[in-house]
Amino acid sequence: MPDLKAICLLSGGLDSATVLAIAKADGCEVITLTVHYGQLHAKEIESAKTIARYYDVENIYVEVPFQWGGSALTDKTIELPKDRDEATMAQDIPVSYVPARNTVFLSLAASVAEARGAERIYIGANAVDYSGYPDCRPEYFDAFQKMIQQGTKSGVGGCGVQITTPLIHLTKAQIIEKGLRLKVPYELTWSCYAGTETPCQACDACILRAKGFKTLGIQDPLLKLPHVKS
Description:
Oligomer: single chain
Strand content: 5-15%
Cofactor: Zn(2+)
Keywords: ATP-binding, Ligase, Metal-binding, Nucleotide-binding, Queuosine biosynthesis, Zinc
Order of helices and strands: EHEHEHHEHHEHH
CATH architecture: 3-Layer(aba) Sandwich
Number of domains: 1
Helix content: 25-40%
Number of helices: 8
Low-confidence stretches: none
Family: Belongs to the QueC family.
Pathway: Purine metabolism; 7-cyano-7-deazaguanine biosynthesis
Shape: globular
Radius of gyration: 17 Å
Structural class: alpha/beta
Mean pLDDT: 92
Organism: Candidatus Abzuiibacterium crystallinum
């Protein structure tokens, strides 16, 4: 039997699928948590549920629609950035940023963890190859960890849930390389911000994903599918 129980935030993307595999490799009994926050397409939600079935783990699905908008991912009147280079991505916080998304996700995960007796929360945040989101930085997770210690029953009792960010200092290529060693089914993941039938290959998420696979000299298995043009 696993020694630890963990909640893994599973979006359906490449990073979260890798983190799920890491949590399993760490010997944890994993419960996945997938949040539909009102994004304009459900492809990543479908991927999350498929990945959870692949790993034969429980998937808790919740809907918390960010109906107030404020992001290109939740508001169709805001144009999604396309074809940006990494230097441009690093200059400012893009309109694809969803206000306080990780704060909401981690709060939900902390609640599930306390209710289910889990000791860890795994999240696939990354502070290297990312689009400049403030809630993907180590300082943010340090601050949230302090909140858990001060604001939960388990925390004030000295046994607070630990936030685990195994990808935080890795490049996208390093993440993929680690995932390949763990046999992550990347063909089941979905990273693209657009709700098109196939990956747009122009949004920030597609560009960073493509960079990772290109650095390793291998083709993204999602783009090997017959309906996807590379």
